[in-house]
Design a protein that fits this description.
- 11% of the residues lie in helices and 55% in strands.
- It is globular.
- It is built from two helices and nine strands.
């Protein structure tokens, strides 16, 4: 039987050289970005969402045990034209007063090689749809970063009417930065 002191020493040593398997992290809005692109009258319109909140629980050894829950504030939409931003807050588009958050809640997470696949429900307005997003996960300095992109059909979520001028498909690129909650240490 190993004396307690030796056991404790081995445990501390193993912890120092082996990465922590599970990471409970809080999304950091100021280090993150959510960008979208859509064609309008043949021109590419770009915009952003902010007000990111949520948690990222990464289990590096067992990715299916990981979980991601994120939301962004609908009223933070910016396209560089304030009149258009206000228009996008109307009921027929994002209806930010009635639906203040766009949300994503993971259902399944897998990893093959260096690429993660996060599948979950994307909630926009009163619609939730299952989306699968290929993601890279990297630790940089004092934060973890999830980077990926996906496309959705805005009509599936009731965002705006069918239009000859406005494309249906929206491309979304994101960088989600997450850190350990310092109050949990």
């Amino acid at each position: 039987m190993i004396p307690f002191a030796k056991y404790l020493y081995l445990l501390v040593l193993f912890s120092a050289i082996h990465p922590v398997c599970a990471q409970a992290l809080t999304a950091i809005d100021s280090l993150s970005s959510i960008e979208f692109r859509i064609r309008n009258f043949g021109m590419m319109v770009e915009g952003t969402l902010s007000g990111l909140e949520g948690t990222v629980n990464l289990d590096l050894q067992h990715p299916p045990r990981s979980q991601v829950t994120l939301s962004a504030k609908a009223l933070t939409i910016e396209t560089g034209i304030s009149l258009r931003d206000k228009h996008l807050q109307k009921k027929e588009y994002f209806d930010g007063d009635s639906f203040p958050y766009l949300k994503f809640v993971s259902e399944n997470i897998s990893k093959a090689g260096g690429r993660w696949m996060i599948t979950g429900h994307l909630h926009i307005k009163k619609t939730a749809m299952l989306v699968s997003v290929p993601v890279t996960v990297n630790e940089e300095k004092d934060a973890w970063y999830l980077r990926g992109h996906f496309s959705i059909n805005r009509l599936d979520f009731g965002v705006g009417p069918k239009s000859l001028a406005l494309a249906d498909d929206v491309a979304v690129n994101f960088v989600i930065a997450a850190k350990r909650d310092e109050s949990q240490k």
